[in-house]
Specification:
Layout (H helix, E strand, L loop, with lengths): L1 E4 L7 E2 L2 H11 L11 E4 L7 H15 L10 E8 L7 H16 L5 E6 L6 E7 L13 H17 L11
Antiparallel strand pairs: 1-4, 2-4, 3-5, 4-6, 5-6
């Protein structure tokens, strides 16, 4: 059974470079990711410099296009969690997460995905840079976008034999 959500305590948003760095350190924890084996990125040159790369994208956007704002969003945090009953390998969980985010965001988004193997249920943490490195525009997500993400996650998870939660249509 696959579930994808944005953590409630932060509403899935990161509002400072310090918080972005702490989040990235947490999700990439080598004890949770089999010594970085299950960490990868899109439009990230080196996973170990993810925060610097994301902040450089933001700095470029500010220099060329956008003005910094009060309470600006630096990044987004998504969690995709799988049931132990689905009998996925960490590689499969990681693959599902990558395919889900690539279909949802396209190829120009900048993100990392880290599959945590430290609990009975495998789960992916995805950290998305709020600034697109190609367009330098900010990422915006509404309730319909989050529902679309859940549908994409369900579709791809189903291809791997995962059970899907029936969600009421709002």
């Amino acid at each position: 059974m696959t579930v994808i959500y944005m953590p409630k305590q932060s509403n899935g948003t990161v509002h400072s470079s310090k918080d972005l760095n702490q989040l990235i350190e947490y999700v990439m924890n080598p004890e949770k990711t089999n010594d970085f084996e299950y960490v990868s990125g899109q439009n990230i040159l080196d996973i170990h410099s993810t925060c610097d790369e994301m902040l450089a994208t933001r700095t470029m956007a500010i220099a060329l296009k956008n003005k910094p704002r009060k309470n600006e969003i630096y990044g987004y945090h998504f969690v995709q969690s799988f049931s132990p009953d689905d009998h996925l390998t960490p590689e499969q969980a990681h693959e599902i997460g990558l395919k889900t985010m690539k279909e949802y965001l396209g190829s120009s988004a900048e993100f990392i995905i880290a599959t945590h193997t430290d609990k009975p249920h495998l789960h992916n943490h995805i950290v998305l840079n709020a600034t697109n490195p190609l367009t330098l525009n900010k990422f915006h997500q509404n309730k319909n976008d989050l529902e679309r993400l859940k549908e994409i996650s369900d579709k791809i998870s189903k291809e791997y034999g995962c059970k899907i939660i029936d969600r009421p249509n709002d």
